[in-house]
Hints:
The complex is a heterodimer. Chain A is mostly helical. Helices cover 75% and strands 1% of the residues of chain A. In chain A, helix 6 (110-143) runs parallel beside helix 12. In chain B, helix 1 packs antiparallel against helix 2 and helix 4 packs across helix 5. Chain B has 5 helices and no strands.
Amino acid sequence: MENLPSLFANIGIGLETALSPANLWYCFVGVFLGTFIGVLPGIGPLAAMSMLFPITFYLDPTSALIMLAGIWYGTAYGSSTAAILINVPGSASSAVTSLDGYPLARQGRAGVALFLTAAASFVGGSIGIVLMMLFSPVIVAYAMKFGSAEYFALMVLGLVAASSISEGSVLKSLAMTLAGIIFGTVGMDIYTGSERFTFGMLELDEGIGLIPVAMGLFGVAEVISSVRLPPLEALREKVTLRSMMPTRDDIRRSIAPTLRGTGIGAFFGTLPGTGPTIASFLSYAVEKRVAKDPSRFGHGAIEGIVSPEAANNAADQTAFIPTMTLGIPGSATMALMIGALMIQGITPGPEMMTSHPDVFWGLVMSFWIGNVLLLVLNVPLIGIWVRLLTLPYHLLYPAILAFICVGIFGVSNTTFGVWVVIFFGAMGFLMRWARLPAASLLLGFVLGPLMEQHFRRAMAISQGDFMTFVDRPISLGIFVITGCILAYGIWLHLRRRLG
Amino acid sequence: MTRCDLKDVLTGGVLAAFGLFVFFHATSTLEIGTTRQMGPGMFPAGAGGLLAAFGVVITVRGLLTRAPLPSLDVRTAAIILAAIAAFALLLDWVGLVAAMVGMTVIATLASERSRVRSTLILAACLTGLAILLSLGLGIPMPLFTWPV
Lengths: 499, 148
């Protein structure tokens, strides 16, 4: 435990950074906007993040990251509110919450459900943060030994795992990852300076921007598919502060499931490709399995909402561990985080922890503050969120488009970025039709350039010998794991098809 | 039409074509290099070739399975994309105010629930919001410009 003093020193650096008035403000803004957009119908977390991305462009790296992270867990909370009150989960990870949350709301216990959701999320998130603080330095110390071959292997592992475990076709996910890698190569080659796929357009010299790609694929495509959403029927009854008080029995029932959910979420959050959605589904299944009376599930069982909520929040936090320590995102959301850092000129990875300790520890500490803010914010503001739920989408989507248009112009200062948004918007629309996952494309797009760099460097060091990836034990181990995951993914897929 | 999964056949075909295009474009216009000293073309060519192979597999799989063709809401997509395009064109031509109004009016055509009155109010509000945003973030967008 000789690391303990440095851990406290790091917490000090983090608190100092996160508690600065500016960062506190951006944390608040992020959480508020995130919750705001999360409860709005038809806008998922990825669309919300890409929509608000341009604002962070004007901030320093730490504030930008703090705000983006706030938006992310804010949307997660907002979408569980929507899941409980009107049975329309804003994101896949809160879909489970509606299974028991909505019946609770129908029984007039919406307040209790909302409060316990917030409390379980807070516990799950907090434990996730502690794990992140403890494990990140260990992983970083280990990762310092990694060379380019290991990084290349890890990135392949991340991309393959994300494709194999996600729902839908493994083949299509991998194909989209490759397409993303190809779009990532557009622009000037950093080694030789030759132009790749720019077709004479000077604007493409520096490559395609992450922001227009994310806005097109998630923002615009989501607007197109939600324009015809029917208006939602909101809950009539009012959610008062008093109605949020859980009974002693509710609390007693919540403790063990919250902790179990946290454990499941913390574990799956760190793995590439699994993340909050799988964690929340799995923890629901586990609760149903261990319950004395499984028949209560689906009819308003408290355990059925607290466990998945704790799981998805814990996963939300631990997902940052591989992202920040190795620079390898496990999901499209984490890819956006990495992208935000790279736009700011910081390459995430083990070096970041030593060269920019304030960014990492400031972010970690801001998670705490953000989670507290969520709790404080949501209890009194619940009335506003309920009203937002009924906002008609035909007034909402032009506003989203306005945000996208102005935001993208603000980032690039030319209308070229707007045309890139249109291109990727059209592509995102067609991809939804073809059931091609846009998240995989984004992941490939962000990781592609890094992969190429490490691949070329590793090959140069080994004098062109492909065996370098197999001769180095760590790299070999990672490739073996990758192969196993791919085989498992294909097996799962075949079984689903045949049976 | 239900004899195969037409959607996947098409998807695979498009992906294969795109992959092949990338492969040939990279190999013909960029230097491939050697494994020891890789040129700028090797990585994209590899990715393109692999993507083409995946596309072929998706097509073949599509030919072997049956699935109905999902509908494609081209009208909505066209209107929304046209609205954004209008923003880009009008902004360069006559400035932010006209661009926002034009974008909003075109965008509202996509929903049958839009009314003239609500559209006009919305256009005014969003233009105000855009002006505030551009001033607040210091984005250089002229409110009005004269077409030259």
